[in-house]
Amino acid sequence: MTEQICLAVEAIKLAYLSHTPVVWLVTGDKEIASEIVEKFTVEHFGTFRSTKIPHVVLLKEFSDRSSDSSTTPSIFYLWYSKNGSDDGTISSLMNSIEKFITCHSNMVVDPNVQAMTEEHVQSTHLSLTIIASPTLPPESWLTKYIEVIYVKPLQDNEIQKIILNALSSKGIIFEDMYRLSQLVVNLRGFSSRKISQTISRCIFSGFFDYNTIQWPKILREIRFMKRQMLDGFIGLKWIDIHDDKYNETIKRGQSKSSESLDVISRWLNERKEIFEDTESARKRGYDIPKGVLITGIPGTGKSMMAKETAKKLRLPLIALDMGDLQEGIVGASEQHMVDALRMVEAMAPCVLWIDEIEKAFSGSNSGNSDGGVMRRMFGKFLTWMQEKTAPCFVFATSNDISKLPPELFRSERFDDKYFSFMPMVDECANIFSNLIESENTKYMENNLDDEQGYLFSIELTHPDTWKYFLNNYTRTKGLVSMDGNIWQEGKIPQCKLFTGADISMIVKLTKFKLLKQFSGSASNFKKELVLNTVKYVLEDFMPYGQTNLKDIARCFVLLSQNRFKSASSSTIINFDDYNVETAEMHYEANRYTDDYNKALYAAIVGAINFYAKQLNNENIK
């Protein structure tokens, strides 16, 4: 018998001896729940399913006790999930529980039960209802009548024993202690049955060969099993990132639109060894990283970086959708949050991705307009962040930190806080070249018989091509010589200044125009043709840096107040150049030599100086 079963049985025994009417057993494993109930009944009443002493029956039998044996104290048991229970619907379950509690606690005959006698009442007072469920009770009124018992996960030594037993049963003696330790870490949160099942699948698939193992394939199998555990789970979604196509994208460079986040990449590289063996890292004195918060301009690769983080750390990526957790029933939203965080810990080690976290918790500062639901959910999340010991790395992104509760910025919530901003010309050029290379790769995979081989000329995969194009386009459009006078005249500069998302859309539009022009049959589009088509697309294209200069200025002012770190080693402006008291940004005319960077720098400094005082008057936080 495992320790988790022993502890649960002892806890139920104490609840029964103290005349608690209902025990709510929290576990996601129905078989473990049945085993716990059986062990409790056998150990403390002598026989399982006896007609002479307390026995296990379904709760629905409580209202239909008419035989002589029905006056015998019983252990009523059922399995409950969000969609219903062994008794049928949720409403019927609540009715059965209410009847049982009434008779158990008040020692009175229920007039609605025709066969109910004083003997029935006496036996009910000596009976116990055990409800097993992955979640807590659905109705708050139950809490004063029940005792909640959490089934603890298997201990590492128990997991190790189950693994070795499963291997030895097939004649495999496994002595690689390093891989055994990694197996234990990755199988945490599994039931004993699920562990044995997973190891057996790996054995029959040929992943174990006496003292050698095919670790990548075993890890893939474990993650497949974990993904199954998440299917249909409220608020959590498994994100696929470990497929071969994504791996190739990573190998070709910092994927697509996240070029301007190299500082975070280095931070992760320094710590990825910790996640390769978290237990060994703990023994050596390392603290397991909690996570990072990244905010800034929309479309600058924050979401893509979440996927790269999981890839770098070689961990599964799980997305938490706060909107799915919210429900109209009192207490349900908070319970969904607790259930989701508990499941995330069962998935550990993993990366937990919370995209646009301000949308999730923006209501936690708005008083009681929602009855305080968001504040309670936020409180449970903060407590979990502060106290969690499982290796769950939180990657949270935000587009507007003004809507985030200030408690989220306190020390030890996250390991670091970063911001992404408008990419400079070298970063933009790299994003263009990576996207073109990605398009070429997809084309080659789908057109193996094409002798040309590429959709776009290979010259367009060189960053220098795009750097020259961006500088030349900016210069010929007269977008460089912009100073504060233009802003003072009330004329907002019409700059073509791009985010990574803008560049991605430009490449897609350019490809569409070319394929449409050549009836979708041409390939290996030449450099000049493509660049001229890009110019044509840009005539009508309105990038973020052209339409949202006020938002860019607002973002910078907020970042300067909270002193986030730059996610990029090259940032177009610095906090040190901004005077908070006067709300003015120092402008240095000769700071940059590239024409695109000159335009970007002048436009942003001008926007900050033009809008900052207005933004301060609006009391941005």
Structure description:
With 621 residues, the chain is an alpha/beta fold. The chain contains 24 helices and 17 strands. The strands form 4 sheets. The chain has a 7-stranded mixed beta sheet. A hairpin with a 2-residue loop joins strand 7 and strand 8 (212-213). Helix 18 (463-476) crosses helix 24 (595-617) and helix 20 (500-517) crosses helix 21. The protein is globular and about 95 Å long. It starts with a helix and ends with a helix.
Mean pLDDT: 80
What is the β-strand count?
A: 17
Cα gyration radius (Å): 31 Å
Q: Number of helical runs?
A: 24
Biggest sheet features: 7 strands, mixed
Structural class: alpha/beta
Q: In angstroms, what separates the terminal alpha carbons?
A: 56 Å
Helix content: 40-55%
- Pick out the low-confidence regions: 48-55, 62-69, 243-257
**Residue share in β-strands:** 5-15%
Side-by-side strand order of the widest sheet: 9-11-12-13-10-14-15
- Give the overall silhouette: globular
How are the elements arranged and paired?
Layout: H1 3-17, E1 22-26, H2 30-45, E2 56-58, E3 75-81, E4 84-85, H3 90-106, H4 118-125, E5 128-133, E6 146-150, H5 156-168, H6 177-186, H7 192-204, E7 208-209, E8 212-213, H8 215-230, E9 236-239, H9 244-251, H10 262-276, H11 278-283, E10 291-296, H12 302-313, E11 317-320, H13 322-325, H14 332-347, E12 350-354, H15 357-361, H16 373-387, E13 392-398, E14 416-420, H17 425-446, H18 463-476, H19 484-488, H20 500-517, H21 527-540, H22 544-547, H23 549-562, E15 565-566, E16 578-579, E17 584-585, H24 595-617
Parallel strand pairs: 1-5, 1-6, 2-3, 3-5, 10-13, 10-14, 11-12, 12-13, 14-15
Antiparallel strand pairs: 3-4, 7-8, 9-11, 16-17
Helix pairs in contact: 1-2, 3-4, 5-6, 5-7, 7-8, 14-16, 17-18, 17-20, 18-24, 20-21, 23-24
